[in-house]
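Shift notes (night). Ran Beta-glucosidase while the centrifuge was going.
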Amino acid sequence: MPDSVNPVTPVTFPPAFLWGAATSAYQIEGAVREDGRTPSIWDTFSHTPGKTAGGDHGDIAVDHYHRYRDDVALMAELGLNAYRFSVSWSRVQPTGRGPAVQRGLDFYRRLVDELLDKGIKPAVTLYHWDLPQELEDAGGWPERDTAMRFAEYAGIVGEALGDRVENWMTLNEPWCSAFLGYGSGVHAPGRTDPVAALRAAHHLNLAHGLGTSALRAVMPPRNAIGVSLNTHVFRALSEDPADQAALKKIDDLGNGVFHGPMLHGAYPDSLFTTTKALTDWSFVVEGDLTLIHQPLDALGINYYTPTLISAGDGDAAGPRADGHGNSQHSPWPGADDVRFHQTPGERTVMGWTIDPTGLHELLMRWTREVPGLPLYITENGCAADDKPDAEGRVHDPERIAYLHGHLRAVRRAIAEGADVRGYYQWSLLDNFEWAYGYEKRFGAVYVDYATQARTPKSSALWYGRLARTGALPPLETSE
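Came back to this:
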């Protein structure tokens, strides 16, 4: 398909477009034992030998808990007008239930006030993978009660911040929480049970629905509530019917399992067929789909790379859409007869193919499936081998090229009718990159982990110019 955006002339975005960056609590905050906070599943998992690269953990991370004012000032200097962050559940409710710890809520109150003071629009994500350990000890996401506890937590945070924060996301990438956390075990809590992964997926859906209702009960009607999904871009290796059937099976497990109930009020029937040898789905209680299928004000899309699918014996050592092709356990229940292939093209240091057409494809898919629903790019970015030069500057032309290509894809989608309202680069800061520890740097801002010094990379300065002007310059003048 030809690109309708001219690559050599400036491209402008709508005047009200949000230009932001995103982070998550466990990856940046540190201060894991301060002000009443108790362990989350990521505290436990990262301190378990062999679970993260180099045994890294988020005890200090990039010390955002103590440095948030400086980090907000840095955002303002760069020209960002939006910031998406997540709340640490165990900082607000240390046991995952009961009354809030006000000291924990006060941190987020101060952060929001600081953002608003600098003219930066806050966007809150309630859950970015850090379940309180006490709830995991009680069964975690495979248990229905966890969804009930999430609704209570959502109401607490919504009541505390809803008067000043207008944009909300219930969950971030529930696919990762369910299938990497309980299926392949490469994420916390590290369990490898395909049935538990499916149960977790349903209860995350239920948590989203109950949490949405809880937020609406305590917040002003003007506030917008959505969810951030890492909707996968799957492509079949060929038109062969077997490859097309494999594509459908994986699309159900990667996409339909969440956007089916959340956005359409039903699971795909073919999902039940794929997983019938594992479970009868009796954990889906009558009325659940109505609770899950709440009207939404926005949809967050997280995109990094597409995945190529074919029929054939599954290859656990091959590349997969989870980014962890060397796991001994599959995150795809009932899909052992599907093979994953590396898509061709240039790759980031994560080994992920750079393909902006996948982002355009996603935006147009959602424009067709849920017409009229505002869309946000809530994560997009790349890891690179960033190093300071002799003068202490950090040049990352490959990230500029990545952003340029993907933002052109966004503008093309807008020109074709997609209602895209904003873009949040992943991530504001170099940080703890989950199982990869501190090896992979996604940040717009370089962090010296020994000193916690922050240095905006050349891509951050480029992105800041874009945020201030709303105009995407030609790539030739981007560096």
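The mean pLDDT is 94. The chain has one domain: 11-473.
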